[in-house]
Give the backbone structure.
Amino acid sequence: MSVLCVLWATLSIIASVLACSGFYLPYWIQGRLLGKADAYFSSFRRCNYPRLRAPNAAPEIVYECARYSSFWDIPSAWWQASTVTMGVGVALAVIAALTLLAAASSFLPHILRMTKPTRALGSLQLIAAVMMCGGIVMYPVGWDNREVRESCGNGANVYNLGKCSVSWSVHLLLGSVALLLLCFGLSFCAARHKPSQPHPLRI
């Protein structure tokens, strides 16, 4: 097992952990709800949201993080598309990382000695990065929904966060994308790398 392949496997694991964390945690954007509490949103989860106990009562803030009750309750079609696209990209990143981990652990060492499987794994990571980028690009198109405007002001619109700001989960996702692109490059280097053969002994 070459150092290059071990590096590739290690970076792949880190990329998949960052992707899973950034996708699941709801800290994509941050706003202020009713001037009382910070509100956080991702494409399918949010933290701190208003709730009405009675039709004429003032809304109260529920201080918890939760996903929407169903896929169709996600308040924007663009967020729904972002969730699906991002989820598929994260799943592909995890599959590639687990395959490489198995290879680096010597369960499937022959995979990293063959050109086609190595390039296929790298291409899978490129597809994962592209799909995650697609999800990131689609997400701001849905910033014009009512829930975002409640926390970000009426100025919130497509690619305009109003009073809100981008939060740290997005940085995890961007870091994951960068590592996946680096892994794609490493896969082609690994495919061209041939392990050195021992010199034959002369008697």
Observations:
- Strands lie at 29-33, 37-41, 45-51, 60-67, 165-166.
- The chain has five helices and five strands.
- The helical segments are 3-24, 77-104, 115-138, 146-152, 168-192.
- The first helix runs from residue 3 to 24.
